[in-house]
Automatic annotation (TrEMBL):
Pathway: Metabolic intermediate biosynthesis; chorismate biosynthesis; chorismate from D-erythrose 4-phosphate and phosphoenolpyruvate: step 2/7. Pfam families: DHQ_synthase, DHQS_C. CDD domains: DHQS. This is 3-dehydroquinate synthase. The gene is aroB. The lineage of its organism: Bacteria, Pseudomonadati, Pseudomonadota, Gammaproteobacteria, Moraxellales. Catalyzes the conversion of 3-deoxy-D-arabino-heptulosonate 7-phosphate (DAHP) to dehydroquinate (DHQ). Its main location: cytoplasm. It is found in: Cytoplasm. The keyword Metal-binding applies. It comes from Fluviicoccus keumensis.
Length: 361
């Protein structure tokens, strides 16, 4: 088992990464101070792993109740969070209770938001069960729900007391979801960790075969990168935005195709290649660098070409750019080198158009 620490002063917390962590109560119980625990999960994950979590808690003498959400991004709503509050109130849960999230990013985001709000804030623990949630959403304290008018528009910062990333639970995750998590892993390499890119190039096949030691190392290196970025800029005033590499292009794809048709990680993968393409056109990285990124994404089972019908004009509209607005207004995360990203408005409008046209040709 590996232990990392997210350095946020008195809001800091450990991340445990390894196999069979759900069978190690010592990773969970010390981080639950009160007696009452609500475990939130969903209809897919609960039948697989809920029993183990409940056992650890009841063995330690905790009073446990559960709240099982329907599965899906479309249920990441205030209405469903209200249901969580109802469970807490019906259980007469008080201010020193804890909420534990057992599931992917959707369960984690909603549970964290409920924990931030219930009686103005109760303790929260993360037991992420998707690759994406283990390397991304469970670390950093962003929580929230969607609104009909925008994704993740209602939320709060709420850091957990502990993150328990058991890589064994990824065995039941389907291939598409696994690859989507890999996109965010590759992202950390591209943004700030050139050694990690080289390591991924060497280990991607083992990763795809879900070799436990390799997956655990990838999760650990990813969490270390995210933890460092978050520790430096908890509330995203500046450098935390680097984590959005590929996301502006990707967001346009997700919106155009309707959420759910492309997974977020898939859209980010294609978006990262578009960002690499623009970085090359800007003279910052070589064409070979772009090909390296492309090869790695393909080996990770990810798409690298945007939907054929998306035109540059559509892209710009969905990237929230008014066509009349000067290029300088749009800030993108681009690559100065592989492993060195910058947030910049300093790119040519003409070259951006070329990248968008290349994607749709
Ligand atoms: P998800 O939570 O929808 O999980 C994907 C699917 O896998 C679901 O059907 C889920 O039930 C299933 N699943 C989960 N664990 C499983 C397991 N071990 N075995 C089998 N099936 C399993 O999706 P996700 O990719 O984990 O998270 C996406 C969400 O995370 C989005 O809502 C996104 O906005 C959010 N997110 C938040 C942050 C943040 O910083 N808070 C960062 C990135 C993404
Ligand atoms: Mg993302």
């Amino acid at each position: 088992m590996e232990t990392l620490h997210v350095d946020l002063g008195n809001r800091g917390y450990p991340i445990f990464i390894g196999e069979n962590l759900l069978e190690k109560p010592e990773c969970l119980i010390p981080f639950i101070t009160g007696n009452q625990v609500l475990v939130v999960s969903n209809t897919t994950v609960a039948p697989l792993y809920l029993e183990k979590v409940i056992k650890n808690l009841t063995d330690a003498g905790k009073q446990v109740i559960t709240h099982i959400l329907p599965d899906g991004e479309q249920f990441k709503t205030l209405e469903q969070v209200e249901g969580i509050f109802t469970s807490l109130l019906k259980g007469r849960f008080n201010r020193d209770c804890s909420i534990a999230a057992l599931g992917g990013g959707v369960v984690g985001d909603m549970s964290g938001f409920a924990a931030a709000c219930y009686q103005r804030g109760v303790d929260f623990v993360q037991i992420p069960t998707t690759l994406l949630s283990q390397v991304d959403s469970s670390v950093g304290g962003k929580t929230g729900v969607n609104h009909a008018l925008g994704k993740n528009m209602i939320g709060a910062f709420k850091q957990p007391k502990v993150v328990l990333a058991d890589v064994g639970v990824l065995d039941t995750l389907n291939a598409r979801e696994f690859s989507a998590g890999l996109a965010e892993i590759i992202k950390y390499g591209l943004i700030r960790d050139n050694h990690f890119i080289v390591w991924l190039e060497t280990n991607i096949e083992k990763m795809m075969m879900r070799d436990k030691a390799v997956v655990a190392e990838a999760v650990s290196r990813s969490c270390r990168n995210k933890a460092e970025v978050v520790a430096a800029d908890e509330f995203e005033t500046d450098q935390r935005a680097l984590l959005n590499l590929g996301h502006t292009f990707g967001h346009a794809i997700e919106t155009s195709e309707g959420y759910g048709s492309w997974l977020h990680g898939e859209a980010v993968a294609t978006g990262m290649l578009m960002a690499a393409d623009l970085s090359w056109r800007s003279g910052w990285i070589s064409q070979e660098d772009v090909l390296r990124v492309r090869r790695l994404l393909l080996r990770a089972g990810l798409p690298v070409v945007p939907p054929v019908h998306m035109t540059p004009a559509q892209f710009l509209e969905l990237m929230a750019v008014d066509k009349k607005v000067q290029a300088g207004k749009l800030r993108l995360v681009l690559l100065k080198a592989l492993g060195d990203a910058v947030i910049t408005a300093d790119f040519s409008w003409e070259l951006l158009q070329q990248t968008l046209a290349a994607g749709s040709s």
